[in-house]
Structure formats: C-alpha cells, structure tokens
Design brief:
Layout (H helix, E strand, L loop, with lengths): L6 E9 L6 E7 L9 E3 L21 H5 L12 E3 L3 E7 L2 E5 L11 E5 L11 E3 L1 E7 L2 E6 L4 E2 L11 E3 L5 H5 L5 E4 L5 E7 L3 H4 L1 E8 L16 H14 E5 L17 E2 L11 E2 L2 E5 L8 E3 L4
Parallel strand pairs: 1-3, 7-10, 12-13, 16-20
Antiparallel strand pairs: 1-2, 4-9, 5-6, 5-8, 6-7, 8-11, 9-10, 13-19, 14-15, 15-16, 17-18, 19-20
Amino acid sequence: TRTPVGFSLQRVGTGCGKASFGFAPPSLSTKGERNSGQTVTCRSERQDPCVKPAKYANCTRIEEVQGNGAISSPLVGSTVTLCPAFVTAVVYNGYYVQHSEGLCDSASSGVFVYTNSAESAVEGSYIEVTGTVSENNRQTTITPTLSSTTLNAGSETPPSHVVLTPPLQSFELEAREGMLVSIESPPGFSMVTSEYYNLGRFGVFTVCNAPDADGRIFQYTNANLPDATGYNAFVEQLSQNCFMVDDNDGTSNPGQVLAGGAFEILDSAGFRGGNQVSPLRGPLYQSYRDNYYKIYTLDS
C-alpha cells in the first residue's frame, strides 16, 4: 500500500531517544513541525541550544562551523583551528573529520576538508586542522591553510554511525551533513534503486525508501491523475525518502562504474532498477546539482 499524497510515516510515542518512538500508520504530514503524537521528555547537554564546554575555549568546534540549524556556515570566510577530531572517511578530493560526540542534535559534528587529493589523511587518525571555511556547492568545507597535526587520541574514541530512518526532512539531514550515517528503512520498507541516469557518466545513482509491497517508487501519474498540487507534494515526499549514492571515483565516464563503493546489490541478476541496496553507510553530504542528499558508501 502506497502512502497517500499529503501523508507521511511518522514516529510517535513519549520518551527520550529513538528506542522510545515507533512508526504509526501514515497520517497527515507535519512538515517543519514535531510529529503528531510525539512527546520528547529528555533534556541534556546534547539538546538545543549547542553548549560549548570550557575545555574547547581555544579551538573551534565543528558545530560552530556548521551552525546550529543553519544551511550555510555562519563562519564563511573565517580561518579557524578545529578542535581535534577523527578522520572518518578519505575520499578522492579530501577527507571528513568528526568529533567523538556531538554537542547537540541540531548542528553537525562532522565536516569536509578539501585537499584535492585522496592521499592527504589517514582514516582513523586524530588530527587538528586549521583552514578557511566556505560553502562549496552547498557543502560546508574547510580548506587547510596549514598542514594538519596528528595527535594522540588518548581516551577519545572514533564516532559511531548515526542511524537515519526515512522519511527525513531537510533540517534533519542538514544537521548530519559531514557525519558518518547509516540509512536504514523502517519495517515494511527497503532502500531500492530508483534512478541511474548518471551511473555511467559519474558513478552515481539514486535509491529511495520504498514499500516492500511495491518494490520500487512509481511515477506520480501511475496512481494519480495529473495535478500540480498533488505532484508537488509527491516531489516533497521523494526528497524525504531518496538519496544519491556516490561511488567515490571522482572521474567522468569511468572505465568501471561502482568501483569505489562498498555496498551490496541484493539481487543475483545484478544492478538494475528496483534492486534493494544495503548497506548505506558513510559520510552524508549535499551538492547543488542534485535534488537529494548524497552519501559516499565507503563502509561495508
């Protein structure tokens, strides 16, 4: 059964943390607001607003760079020295760093460091980065002005993946930009291959959270008469349920597509539309050329 236009799956319940909330049948969408039937009872240092402990007085936390609920960094143009963080992923043109733990839920504790090289960092290392803040194609970016310094992590431990369960609104995704995430469908749904027009050109394809009963996402007019309002709501629903997968090759017209990604196509017939794809784990980011948030699937 498909979710009707104007409705969405929502987590409901009372408590603190994901375990306290379960999915209810589709109900009227509450875009930009808390779900109907959802009561959050917890308050801690991780709740808004972000509170910067005194021990970080002489460095800049990544949450300050990303901004509390902001799309663009409030520090664009500034040169900052980040508080030490772990290298969580190395990609073809730089790497991602993330603090062991975030300070709040509305600001990301991870960020991309652009070096134009994949040989500039070692995954798992604990480093200090100094660089200039910019927004590059919607992605908050640090461009180093000094060589990074590798430090002893001591009692600090690398961050864990943050589980994201669609549907997800843009502010929820923006608050995880640059962080390691694991995208997991709710019961009765799976992440399936929905579009791969640029697979051969750039090594990217789109996956969407689709009902297991349908097996894939259908065009709006497959079940509805043409209607501008209904179609716009349908597109909005797609933006909350779809992601682009990047194979981390970085070239145009690669000789072998999907060579750099670590994920499994759950179909013995190979890659095609409607495939279930698992896992979707890696750093989350955004690009101005694309309608959806993207993920480098680097972790098996």
